[in-house]
Design brief:
Layout (H helix, E strand, L loop, with lengths): L16 E3 L19 E11 L7 E8 L4 E6 L2 E5 L1 H5 L5 E10 L8 H4 L6
Antiparallel strand pairs: 1-2, 2-3, 2-6, 3-4, 4-5
Length: 120
């Protein structure tokens, strides 16, 4: 070990919908959370672009509920992106932080927005 920092480049699989199985909860928590309270929706992903841990650039994809679409934020440049592209990032873009929100706390969103579909 040299004490140097090294970036983990292992690809990860993640989904927009996250269902926490009841058996993952502690015995004390199991009766406290209904199936609805264990459903989460991805609303942002922070990526690190670059091959080294000490160098690179951070960008974010975030779901905009008002537009009903995913937005890619790279400094001052904001552009629409697809759910498919955030689930399959390029080889030099590593998902760094995933942000999920419990579905039963999403007030004012219709089923289409919850599913990541464009609303008309």
């Amino acid at each position: 070990s040299t004490g140097a920092v090294q970036k983990v480049l292992k690809p990860i699989d993640f989904t927009v919908d996250l269902d926490i199985p009841k058996n993952m909860l502690s015995a004390e928590a199991r009766p406290k959370f209904s199936a609805k309270q264990r459903l989460y929706k991805l609303f942002a992903v922070v990526y690190h672009n670059g091959r080294e841990a000490t160098k690179g650039h951070y960008v974010t994809d975030v779901f905009h509920t008002g537009y009903g679409t995913w937005l890619h934020c790279d400094d001052s440049i904001i552009s629409e992106t697809s759910e498919q592209s955030l689930l399959n990032p390029s080889h030099n873009s590593t998902p760094y932080i995933l942000f999920y929100r419990r579905c039963d706390t999403m007030v004012g969103m219709d089923r289409g927005a919850l599913a990541g579909e464009k609303t008309k």
